[in-house]
Design goal:
The structure is a single chain. With 329 residues, this protein is of the alpha/beta class. It has two domains: 60 residues; 257 residues, TIM Barrel, CATH 3.20.20.80. Helices cover 38% and strands 22% of the residues. The chain is built from nine helices and 13 strands. Strand 3 and strand 4 form a beta hairpin. The N and C termini lie close together (8 Å).
């Protein structure tokens, strides 16, 4: 899998770099054309070295060849309880990771600072052989200023929940935050503190608008390819996913210096607008069109695929063939 992804990326990079090699070699040829046979021999060695260096640099430039291939899901309810349909889904699509939301962190109205909210209740277990990745959502306003000890409290709470509910061998945690240019620096410092307190792998979500910012210092990011539109313009575009909203950000993908997995929406959004119930869903063709487009820009995004989120209604919303295409590597 890694070699196939790397190969597709290298072809594009090497083709572009060979044009630069031609120009460099032509200049070198001009300089040495009047020199001896020894100079011509040196010229070929230099050319060969330049070619090797270019190929190595182009292939080595791909930032996410180390992503582990696999299929994953998010679990985003407050009650951990799986029915037979959901268990069958995990088995049929060879799900090897569940990003399980443990709790949210929200800004308290009082002066006490951020507090946990909507904590997950464990009334069931994830099937054996599937890795559980505790995930915590932090509201952006919590990162408007530094809160001393917040990272340590968060990690301690995750460890307590793992121990209380017999969740063994947790190697990784994920932090989810819709950070902005205003909150980015504080959030990145917070992530560094989380990494230090946890001592293992830490990942974070990356929204499309965050691709233009410097990358955080985490092990990898999950590119959230949903909630891409303006909810107030729902009559013009689907706020969950629309190719027209994704397209402006595609140019950032190939150069983003962080390993990335890709997360796609399979959920619906029901809300009331002017006393009228409006349900947003995404057509299967739209999901697959976007998937194709992002993988064109960054082929290795086909390695690690996540769907948001595991739920019987979401499973039944799409045909099995659609899920096969989404999870196609």
């Amino acid at each position: 899998m890694h070699f196939r992804v790397l190969s597709k990326f290298c072809v594009a990079k090497v083709t572009k770099s060979l044009e630069q090699i031609k120009r460099i070699y032509s200049f070198f040829l001009f300089i040495t054309q009047e020199f001896s046979t020894f100079a011509r021999m040196i010229r070929w060695k230099v050319c060969y070295a330049l070619l090797l260096a270019t190929v190595f640099t182009a292939c080595n430039h791909q930032p996410d060849i180390s992503m582990e291939p696999g299929n994953s899901v998010y679990y985003w309810r407050t009650d951990l309880r799986l029915d037979s349909t959901e268990r069958a889904f995990l088995h049929h699509y060879h799900i090897n990771k569940v990003y399980c939301r443990y709790f949210d962190v929200v800004q308290n109205d009082t002066a006490t600072g951020p507090v946990p909210n909507a904590t997950l209740t464990f009334n069931d277990t994830i099937p054996d052989g599937i890795e559980v990745i505790p995930t915590v959502y932090i509201t952006e306003d919590c990162m408007h200023r530094w809160h001393k000890g917040l990272a340590e409290k968060l990690v301690r709470r995750i460890r307590q929940m793992n121990e209380t509910n017999d969740i063994p061998d947790v190697r990784e945690i994920q932090i989810d935050c819709d950070y902005t240019a205003k909150s980015r620096r504080t959030y990145y410092e917070f992530l560094d503190s989380v990494r230090s307190a946890w001592g293992g792998r830490v990942s974070t979500t990356i929204r499309l608008h965050q691709l233009s910012m410097p990358a955080p210092t985490v092990d990898y990011g999950v590119l959230m390819i949903y909630n891409t539109g303006d909810p107030n313009k729902f009559d013009e575009r689907n706020p969950i996913l629309d190719m027209r909203d994704v397209k402006p950000y595609l140019r950032y993908l190939s150069e983003y210096p962080l390993p990335l997995a890709a997360a796609y929406p399979v959920f619906s959004w029901l809300r009331t607008i002017h006393a009228v119930n409006v349900e947003h869903t995404v057509e299967a063709d739209e999901i697959l069109q976007v998937k194709h487009a992002v993988e064109q820009e960054r082929p290795s995004l086909s390695a690690a695929i996540i769907t948001y989120h595991l739920d019987k209604d979401n499973i039944n919303r799409y045909k099995p063939e659609t899920y096969e295409e989404i999870y196609h590597h």
